[in-house]
Amino acid sequence: RLSDEGILIAKIASSVLAAFAGFILLVTMTQVGLNIANRGSGLLMFPLGQLLAVLILDLLLCMLLSCAGVLVSLRASSVREATQKLTVAFMIVSGGMLFAVLSLPREWTALLRDWLAGSSAVWLVTLAVVVLTALNAAVYALARAKFRRARLILDWAASSYDDPYATLQINVDALDVSHAHQMSRGRNIGVAVIETGVDAQH
After folding, report:
1. With pLDDT > 70 as the criterion, what percentage of the chain qualifies?
2. All residues at 6 or more sequence positions from 182 whose CB lies less than 8 Å from its CB, including other chains
3. Alpha helices per DSSP H over the chain
4. Is the Cβ–Cβ distance between 178 and 153 less than 8 Å?
5. Whole-number pLDDT of residue 124
6. What b/e sequence results for 13-22 when a residue is b if at least 16 CB atoms lie within 10 Å of its CB, and e otherwise?
7. Helical packing angle, 48-74 and 121-146, nearest 10°
8. How far is CA 44 from CA 25, 48, 54, 66, in A?
9. How far apart are CA 84 and CA 92, in angstroms?
10. What is the pLDDT of residues 97-132, one digit of tens each?
């Protein structure tokens, strides 16, 4: 039986691996497409340094979104609700950051542009890695403090059973019935009940 932290790490790791694998597939398809479109010009490759930087930043961003997703799922009664909340939160944060940048005075925008132009790419990537790592550590610590196996079971039970009182049945939680039902619900299984009849005098 996995501990709470083991389940938390497994949930985050599975989300990160799925998203990161999708990004690598996208990069690979882009590379193949560029070479097909420019065949005859030799083998075209992304610069190794830039590719590594993008992969590292994408991995850290996937970890951040996965940790945030766990936090959101603890306050959602279903996967659909958790997805909706995470999508709205992401749109608000990204839109807010874009609006804040566009709302800066022209003098500040010019200073920011000059600062970015004068900074080396290595320094900017390092700064981004440090910021994302700090955010990951903070969000993971919060997810670790809030995450409870029992809450996960109750949320799953509430959204999976057509019973408004599912979360009140402590025997279901104690026997881990909801976990067993994720694998099988006994379909096509015959159950024999030994019955000797009704005692009308009982």
Report:
1. 80
2. 156
3. 4-37, 48-74, 79-102, 106-118, 121-146, 149-160, 170-174, 177-181
4. yes
5. 85
6. eebbeebbee
7. 20
8. 17, 12, 18, 33
9. 12
10. 888 878 888 888 888 888 878 778 888 889 899 999
Tell me how far apart the alpha carbons of residues 15 and 83 are, in angstroms, rounded to a whole number.
Answer: 13
**Paired tokens of 78:** 């279903």
pLDDT at 154: 45
* Least confident piece of the model among 23-37, 93-107, 166-180: 166-180
Closest alpha carbon to 72 in 63, 62, 83, 56: 83
Rounded to the nearest integer, the mean pLDDT of the chain is 79
The reported pLDDT for the residue numbered 25 is 92
Output DSSP code: residue 67.
H
Contacts of residue 63, defined as CB under 8 A and 6 or more positions apart, other chains included, come to 12, 16, 136, 140
Confidence (pTM): 0.62
- End-to-end CA distance of the chain, in Å? 44
**Cβ burial, residue 12 (10 Å; 0-12/13-18/19+):** buried
